[in-house]
């Protein structure tokens, strides 16, 4: 799910990982075959079931067969925001004073 072991340890220490519904606070928590691991990562919730283990560390392609990904519970994954407000064209540079004032007027009208 993450690129490094230290990033995985930080996720666990930050309370973003659950094993069988119980929040873990240390990356050293042992898991068994059949355990359900829930990871909150990048505004998404991934629910994984452990199906096996590897003898040695390997590539990401080899690890795909060691877990099954399930659908997260409804409402667990926030929907991306559709309306992001007024946007400038890429490469248009900084807004001018007139642009900033018109953007402020637009923002003030919103509830």
Give an account of the 3D structure.
There is one protein chain. This protein has 111 residues and is an alpha+beta fold. The chain has a domain at 5-70: Structural Genomics Hypothetical 15.5 Kd Protein In mrcA-pckA Intergenic Region, Chain A (Roll), CATH 3.10.290. It is 23% helix and 20% strand. It contains three helices and five strands; from the N terminus they run H-E-E-E-E-H-E-H. It has helices at residues 5-13, 60-63, 97-109; strands at 17-19, 22-23, 36-41, 44-50, 67-70. Strands 2-1-3-4-5 form a five-stranded antiparallel sheet. A hairpin with a 2-residue loop joins strand 3 and strand 4 (44-50). The longest helix is centred in the C-terminal third of the chain and has 13 residues, at 97-109. The chain is elongated and about 65 Å long. The two termini are 39 Å apart. Pfam families: S4 (PF01479). This is RNA-binding S4 domain-containing protein. Residues 2-37 form the RNA-binding S4 domain. It comes from Rhodoplanes serenus. Residues 101-111 have a biased composition (Basic and acidic residues).
